[in-house]
């Protein structure tokens, strides 16, 4: 799929947000605008045996759902696919799908390795690695920015953090990409299942080896530290390694790819960034808002409640669409413009509330390293072929972006 057409449905009910092809083939900007105006808390009808669910699109409503984990729980899953399938097998054991006291206890242990101070060494290695990747890309001239540059930066950082040895990283890249789904929208459930299990098995072995000989990495921390008065089970450790790799790889990669595309399409913004007129810090925030790699976060209502003027029943699925909230005209001036100097820019790309992205600091550091390397090493970036869009109802962006990079 080369370009995405605008989605202009006759009725709101005919749009199936669960269909990965919808997101790969269409730009949903005007659909989100219409939902925010006409039905900010919209009931998505049930289909093909799947339950219906609420679709929340306004900034303030999204923030209020994500802030209130007592009313809107993550324990039955936090993405549409698992919620519609009836639950997440890692519920109560993996950070993103755990609530209340167990969530707080596990999160407080994990906050330390994700803090700016602990990440210093990882980030220094991200800077060096990113510079090298961009240098190599400039030498080659024409590359697929998605596969040749962006894919390597987040994965190397996560592997550093988890203590995955360099010799295993190729294997982990392959498993992660295939665990995340298909390239063409036709689900290959068997290969996805095999790759997910491959990752779980890999982390199971890594955890066993760290148990006998701990190092200074997150796997060793999970193996050795007590959480709420007990050590974590082997399964809990494996699920959380899995969640870190799945949560931090593709999202960051997609923001890098979408960020470069937006810059290539807007020479004025490219000039503003490379001349230093706009700093990298606001530029990173605008890239995050613009790309919104995680389209939605899902929750389940724990009791009857009102959301806007809609009555939400206990047990119903509530999905909050950051893709829409980040373009809410009541919060962002000219929300459909890519403006690197935008301020304030309180985007929701990392969600909000108790489940706010644990890797936000790391992701920002990776994007900063990329923008700095592009500014330093690249004078002109141009498209060298059509991009390919990701088929997913959860992740948004491009899986291929051929570009020509000319050095300074
Ligand atoms: C949570 C987005 C990078 C690890 C989240 C959530 C979002 C998100 C939206 C909240 C999910 C929910 O509300 O249910 C992103 C984006 C990223 C990114 C857009 C990059 C641009 C990372 C990185 C890591 C990471 C680099 C780790 C290496 C996590 C974890 C959680 C999380 C462990 C669960 C936190 C909790 O439940 O307390 N992320 N993420 N993410 N993210 Fe990220």
From TrEMBL:
InterPro entries: Cyt_P450, Cyt_P450_B, Cyt_P450_sf. It comes from the Bacteria. Gene3D superfamilies: Cytochrome P450. Belongs to the cytochrome P450 family. This is Cytochrome P450.
């Amino acid at each position: 799929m080369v370009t995405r057409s605008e989605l202009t449905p006759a009725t709101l009910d005919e749009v199936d947000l669960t269909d990965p092809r919808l997101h790969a083939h269409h730009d949903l900007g005007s659909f989100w605008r219409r939902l925010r105006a006409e039905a900010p808390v919209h009931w998505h009808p049930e289909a093909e045996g799947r339950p219906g669910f609420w679709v929340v699109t306004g900034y303030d409503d999204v923030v209020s759902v994500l802030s209130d984990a007592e009313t809107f729980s993550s324990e039955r899953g936090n993405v549409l696919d698992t919620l519609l399938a009836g639950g997440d097998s890692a519920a109560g054991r993996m950070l993103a799908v755990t609530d209340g006291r167990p969530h707080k206890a596990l999160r407080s242990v994990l906050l330390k390795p994700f803090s700016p101070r602990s990440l210093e060494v990882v980030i220094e290695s991200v800077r060096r690695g990113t510079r090298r990747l961009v240098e190599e890309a400039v030498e080659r001239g024409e590359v697929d920015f998605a596969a040749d540059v962006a894919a390597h930066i987040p994965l190397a950082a996560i592997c550093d953090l988890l203590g995955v040895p360099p010799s295993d990283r190729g294997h982990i890249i392959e498993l992660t990409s295939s665990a995340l789904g298909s390239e063409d929208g036709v689900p290959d459930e068997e290969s996805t299942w095999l790759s997910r299990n491959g990752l779980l098995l890999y982390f199971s072995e890594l955890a066993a080896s760290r148990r006998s000989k701990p190092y200074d990495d997150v796997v060793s921390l999970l193996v050795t530290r007590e959480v709420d008065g007990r050590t974590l089970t082997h399964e809990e450790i494996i699920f959380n390694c899995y969640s870190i790799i799945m949560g931090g790889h593709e999202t960051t990669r997609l923001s890098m790819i979408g960020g470069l595309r937006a810059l290539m399409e807007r020479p004025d913004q490219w000039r503003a960034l490379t001349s230093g007129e706009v700093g990298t810090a606001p530029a990173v925030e605008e890239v995050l808002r613009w790309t919104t790699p995680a389209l939605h976060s899902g929750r389940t209502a724990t009791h009857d409640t009102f959301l806007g003027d809609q009555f939400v029943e206990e047990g119903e699925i509530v999905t909050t669409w950051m893709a829409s909230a980040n373009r809410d005209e009541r919060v962002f001036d000219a929300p459909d413009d890519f403006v690197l100097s935008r301020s304030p820019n309180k985007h929701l790309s990392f969600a909000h509330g108790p489940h706010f992205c644990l890797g936000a600091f790391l992701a920002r550091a990776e994007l900063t390293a990329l923008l700095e390397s592009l500014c330093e090493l690249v004078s002109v970036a141009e498209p060298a072929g059509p991009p390919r869009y990701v088929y997913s109802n959860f992740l948004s962006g491009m899986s291929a972006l051929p570009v020509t990079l000319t050095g300074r």
